[in-house]
Design goal:
The chain is α/β, with parallel strands linked by helices. The protein has 7 helices and 9 strands; from the N terminus they run E-H-E-E-E-H-E-E-H-E-H-E-H-H-E-H. It has a single domain (6-195), classed as P-loop containing nucleotide triphosphate hydrolases (Rossmann fold, 3-Layer(aba) Sandwich). The protein binds guanosine-5'-monophosphate. Residues 14, 36, 40, 71, 73, 75, 80-82, 100-102, 105 line the site of guanosine-5'-monophosphate (5GP).
Amino acid sequence: MNEKGVLIVLSGPSGSGKDTVLDEIAKIIPIQRSISMTTREKRVNEANNIDYIFVDRDHFEKCIRDEDVLEYVEYSGNYYGTPKGPIDKWLEEGKTVVLKIEVRGAENIKKIYPNAVTVFIVPPSFETLENRLRRRNSEKEEDISKRLETARYEISCAHDFDYVIINDELDDAISDLNTIIKAERLKNNKMKFFKSEV
Ligand code: 5GP
């Protein structure tokens, strides 16, 4: 990865509140979000090409064959993947690019972009996570159980991440992510400064 932009990979179990944190941070600082592709059904509050690019399995599998996705996984019975698209261009332009993906995707992105900064968001407790998932009311009971099972696995991977944010108070979590992004951008400034000085 070139050092102009910063690639932030944000992960956390379903119900950790990472979507809300990201929506709020986008109101405070300029970030470039990558829109993932998925075969999951669109939720009522979601829009195509904004929350996800919603496609069918045939289309997704064609994209895999054509190597149009940077990474992809099957998660809770659906495909999710990061389109190759303009990530390199955004980084070249100096943007803060954010991928909101699950843990295996984060691991794969780190292999492709070793300078990527990985951030894991956790709820304060497993109970909170379960309550949030049920309150969301957008999944069937079977899906909720699947997501809780996946969450246990994901939380066990948190130690591999560069940073962990505990999302207890939303404002604190937003502030933590803002701090991480600022600090990582300052690292880049350091590299730019010394490059021009020596
Ligand atoms: P949801 O169905 O709740 O929107 O997403 C399920 C999980 O898939 C979340 O952890 C989300 O971050 C992850 N996810 C979304 N897009 C991608 C992607 O492009 N790649 C990977 N690896 N995970 C993704």
